[in-house]
Amino acid sequence: MKLKFLGTGTSQGVPVIGCTCEVCTSENPKDKRFRSSVMITTEESRKILIDCGPDFREQMLLNHENNVDIALLTHEHNDHVIGLDDMRPLIFKSGKNMPLYCYERVGNEVKKRFPYAFADVRYPGAPAFDLHEIENKPFRVLDTEITPIEVIHYEITVFGYKFKNLAYITDANFISDVEKEKLQNLDVLVLNCIRKFDPHPAHFILPDVIALFKELKPKKLFLTHISHHLGLHDIEDKDLPEGMHLAYDGLEVEF
């Protein structure tokens, strides 16, 4: 299986509009970050999208991706769901509703933000989704077992997802001991890391991630959901402990 980072940035992306810091003005492509999202390619070449933010269209085009079989949503914040309308070409091509897997709470928010996609009589150009409510227990879809990992993001619960020996977690500032049991000794762990310093009420910062790396002991750990406050990619990546890496848009990881 493969995981491709379609986006590794925060809700504002990088560069940030109007910012002239060294990261936002960097010419290094690794310092330019779309909103966080990944594409999982299964052993049968099926495509599982995790989150669908405002950059979804450009992410698909730049990465030459032309299909999504299902989408998993971590939570309802706009930088993770507001691109769902741009799934229309894929829905039209397949002639099928797009399956979305998420909390019931998240599904209800999707209905509120895209009511036209769930109308009894839909406009001919509207998207169409099939909502599948999931709970904090493993489920199987597309011949792939997926294990949700429930984490806390400020005051809401968010799902990370585990496939085989890889786990992807974005938008978290707390993981319980029970959920950490699912994350022991992974081959690959992906964690959000918004900045180097100053505690954040909703996200891990670098010291938190380093502590989790030492505790959970994955073979590799990739940082995502990165803001311009973390620093230049090429400099900060070299300073990380061995086995830790800054993810960047377009990076592909096999597992």
TrEMBL record:
It comes from the Bacteria. InterPro entries: Metallo-B-lactamas (IPR001279), RibonucZ/Hydroxyglut_hydro (IPR036866). CDD domains: metallo-hydrolase-like_MBL-fold. Gene3D superfamilies: Ribonuclease Z/Hydroxyacylglutathione hydrolase-like (3.60.15.10). Residues 46-226 form the Metallo-beta-lactamase domain. PANTHER family: HYDROLASE C777.06C-RELATED, HYDROLASE C777.06C-RELATED-RELATED. This is MBL fold metallo-hydrolase.
